[in-house]
Amino acid sequence: MSERFITMEGKKLVLAGEALEVGAKAPDFKLLDNGLSAVTLQDYGAKVKLVSVVPSLDTGVCDQQTRRFNEAASSLDNTVVITVSVDLPFAQGRWCGAAGLDGVATLSDHFDVSFGNAYGVLLPELRLLARAVFVLTADNKVAYVEYVPELTNHPNYNEALQVLQSFSK
Description:
Blueprint: E1 4-8, E2 11-15, E3 30-32, E4 38-40, E5 48-53, H1 60-73, E6 79-85, H2 89-99, E7 105-108, H3 114-118, E8 122-123, E9 128-129, E10 132-136, E11 142-147, H4 157-167
Parallel strand pairs: 5-6, 6-7
Antiparallel strand pairs: 1-2, 3-4, 5-10, 8-9, 10-11
Helix pairs in contact: 1-4
């Protein structure tokens, strides 16, 4: 396994875990929802999933990314947007309330960062997750992967949403 990197304002940061590839089976996960209940990938059943990974909901780009994906996917059938960060579940719940987004699925990888390792987005030096987007089919095959190379940049919304829409019909 060769080391993988992203940057944060030009500073090189190591990514832990293996990169996911299109066509692979998505790793299951165990994350905490805002009420501290464990949630797994299987809990979303046969829905198409857009997994939006952000460093922290309390930053401008992360806030915008979460809002944009949820607004765009709200009209799609059999689809769920899942936002994952290492923010505490309480902070995620507070953000959802302040943003007026009660129906948004925000999940925390704070406990053991196992999602970060499994999906190849863990930044061990900062104990944060790198910005990334995954689209998973109804049977949890990876249909789209984007590891955003600069942590402060936005993902390619249009590309991710096109793939999501193609599976949500």
